[in-house]
Amino acid sequence: MPALALADWLRSLPDDRMAALLRARRDLATPPPSDSTVLATRAGTPGSIARACEQLDSATLATYEGLVVAGADTEPVTPERLAELLGDEPAPAGLFELALAWDDPDSGEIQIPPGARETFGPFPAGLGDSVPALAGTDLDGFDLGDDERALLRKLSAGPPIGRTRDAAADVPLELAETPVQKLLARGLLVRRDSSTVELPRELGLALRGGTIHREGELAEPELPVHPHGQSTVDEAGAGEAMELLRHAESLLRAWSDTPSPVLKSGGLGVREVKRLAREIDVDETRLALLAELVAGAGLVAASDEATPEWVPTTLTDSWLSSPPAIRWMTLAQAWLDLPRLPGLAGQRDEKDKVLAALSEELRRPNAPMLRKRVLATLSELPGGAGVKSIDELVAHLAWHAPRKGGRLRDEIARSAMSEGAALGMVALGAITSAASALLEDDPHTAASAMADAMPTPVDHVLVQADLTVVAPGPLEADLATEVNAVADVESAGHATVYRVTEASVRRALDTGRTADDLHELFRSRSATPVPQGLTYLIDDVARRHGRLRGGAAASFLRCDDEVLIAEVMAHSVAADHELRKIAPTVLVSPYPLAELLDALRGAGFTPAAEGPDGRILDLRPSGRRIPARNRPTQRTAHAPAPISEDQVSAVLAHIRAGDRAATTRRGATVRLPAGGGADTSATMALLAQATREQREVWIGFVDSHGTATQRIVTPVRVGGGILEGSDNERYPLHRITSAALVEA
């Protein structure tokens, strides 16, 4: 039987090849098989074979399919017959490595497990069942019409069956009218039932020229590349990464101010996508990607309210204060492990319903594995080399793993290239150094590589006469904080333009900065002369700023200028906010201080907030935050954990020990009574004898998984319900079912 032949073949493999097999086919090692026979049985199951086939490239898979067509699951097939079917040199090496097939060391004949046939379905290679009587049939010897030949060619391309009413009854050739009736009458088609016909395998092969695949179908497709310098690729990627970080920051700040509602079905509504896209000046596809990234990184989550909203978490503040390379690494790692397809957002499902960003409809568990395959393929190219065409890359991936990823494989590959480019992990069709390091699970090197590729932060700005401030590159962190405090972004990009206005200067003064601080900022950090207009603006706002001060009473206003107090009391804002005078220079209100100051500013006054010590306070809200959620580790959610070397060694030792026990000659076997509780003196006497004489003993026992197995043990002690062996293994006596001395 083939299963026994596979067991013998596995038993003959050296340890290094067995270890490689266990690493490649993780499912074979769990739970540890008791011996090679159990391992062979497990390796021959259709489910295990199907999983292993996902690792095969097209040429190796075609070889396996050829073995199925040749019937190698029932009798050995010669390499010559296999080459004849393939029309090319077979590639069985990958099959041997995965124990999907095995060969006879003397004849070279190849066999496969019976379960392999189920892996390829009822029509392997698109060919029908065999009709041996048709072997060697020459179709040129038949007087076939064009319509009959066309039908045969169509069925030969696969699948080999067709449904037709013409198969209802046998019709003599002289009475046949349709192509199906004529071919049935000639015996060139086989009736499966009253409405189905099938083209026999022998005729299908003859119509294909004797091979199961057309010429050229098995050749590995070329992957043309453009040569680039690695530094060029890294710099281009870093530029995209900086832009992505800017947009992600804008989205987080927008959600801090105005969280978006969560749809009843989950996700982010179309209107909110459009609003946010306009607000941060990106298209809707990029907005969906940004939303998925910040949510995947745990920076945003749905609040636990009656009406939930998408709100930044407490991780957002630390992320915003981190260096750019660290912020990039957080988003890039989240993308690598994201079991979702952001690119599907905005598309419609089979019910014509729009797929919403952040919804469950975008979940694709295979996405991380396929995404990493794309990057791994790019990393195998020479440094800096970029693919010329995504279509060619998709074809390359499909050839190397045609059964891996299913129908989403090509879509995920295309998405990985576009999303990777947006993240700065791919640039000019090549992988960046930072992405390569992240792919190798080296975040420290990844962050360093991205930091090196990013533009060096500049320590100066260019102040212009129209009160705009130009940042000629990314600003140093402290300078960026100061400029953002006193100016508003007017246009962003590689060179950011800020504008200084009365409101922005007042905002800076509200945070406790003085006019002298602002003058010193522009004097020391501007590479161009500071225009007088900016100096006058700062001085004018500072002169008026803080003359009127507020506190909490719920709130109060105080001012040394009684005339200004009178102006406030004469304004409608006094009545609206129930201001009353408690002293010539002090007013109080039951309204919150922040609300009162906003109303006064809207009325044209310029108040400032103060604390109990009289110092100016910054009352601007920092935005909503909710507790960060514990994100599940997603690397193991979509792929089994790799088996460790220690596990491989332990499983291999377990198998070898079982093989030795199964093939060892032994004397009379002493069996323990079923159910326990009976006299076990004979067994104990045998084990005691083996201990005294230091002889090997064969034991049969049931392991902790409930599996019956056998071992060869040299006992060193029997007692306390335990048999201890010289290999430091301990065998509970109640699990031992039989024992026998090993004969020399």
From TrEMBL:
Superkingdom of this protein's organism: Bacteria
Question: Which molecular function GO terms apply here?
Answer: helicase activity
Q: Which residues form the Helicase XPB/Ssl2 N-terminal domain?
A: 461-583
Enumerate the UniProt keywords alphabetically: ATP-binding, Helicase, Hydrolase, Nucleotide-binding
Name of the molecule in the record: Helicase-associated domain-containing protein
Native organism is: Prauserella alba
